[in-house]
Amino acid sequence: MDAKGLTKRFGSLTAVDDVKLQIPEAAIYGFLGPNGSGKSTTIRMLCGLLTPSAGEVEVLGFRVPGQAEEVKLHIGYMTQKFSLYEDLTVEENLRFLAAVYDLPRSDLKQRIDRALEQYWLTEQRKQFAGTMSGGQKQRLALAGATLHRPRLLILDEPTSAVDPQSRRDFWDILFELVEQGTTVLVSTHYMDEAERCHNLAILDRGRLVAEGRPRDLVRDIAAGVVEIETDSPKQARERLEATEGVHSVAQLGTRLHALTDKTIADPAELIRQALKDADIDSEVENVVANLEDVFVAATRLNDQEGSRADAA
Ligand SMILES: Nc1ncnc2c1ncn2[C@@H]1O[C@H](COP(=O)(O)OP(=O)(O)OP(=O)(O)O)[C@@H](O)[C@H]1O
Questions:
Q1: Handedness of CA 173, 150, 10, 19 (dihedral sign)
Q2: What is the pTM of this model?
Q3: Which residue numbers delimit the ABC transporter domain (predicted)?
Q4: I need a surface site. Which of 53, 132, 169, 309 has the fewest CB within 10 A?
């Protein structure tokens, strides 16, 4: 699956700006970015649900926008909003969807039995969808989105409304689908979900700012990463934000993470010295980056390039 020059403008807003992607089949491809960065718009253009302002997509052997109608037959789509009928039972919801997809009646019972089993809903078969837990609703939505066995599954922030255990269960099911050959596109702002994707695109204000396997992104981060433990996080943060060579400081749990310029040989030493000069007690060490650091570094770099371009 390939996209070139993918662009979407809504009036004067460029929601997606010249994005180029190569997405492997039978794998999970994640889109990570803040609200409004263009994740949904990109995904919807990739699967033919939205016509691009410019650019081309080749998906499942079809060209988009030209063959968008053909692509739609092969996709399953699920959003964070529960889109099934709360006053129908689990089974009735699936039967209804089967009719919408125009699935053959001959093997419908087997198909539904299999879906209930695969999505752990057999016991809820006769239960009204509206009375189920968040995790069960979400599994039902996924069962519905995959009932016609799509080759491409689109998940737009699918786990926003569920607890961590349900999220893990949901991802176990996704990995099974991938083993059966499904390609999955998923948008998220959860770092733990992003880490589970085979590949990841980081978007910021419509632009693709980083792309690759999560572990490569973490390894190749274009910044030094320093972890700081201190009883005075606020003062430390203010001091470091004013220190030359420090690009950003973020609070991660009880610690601070500082990103330093990639030209600095020993980032921890720079930070240690700056905090010592300000009489702030701290423990400081160079650490391996996590995806949150990658995200901050990528979006930060984009900012700096943006302001250089503005100044030019
Ligand atoms: N149909 C539309 N008309 C006008 N503007 C739109 C439309 N759809 C999206 N946008 C704008 O495009 C930008 C990107 O939106 P998009 O929904 O793709 O972002 P996102 O990264 O998926 O955000 P979120 O995480 O909040 O879902 C936003 O500024 C949004 O307001």
A1: positive
A2: 0.88
A3: 1-230
A4: 309
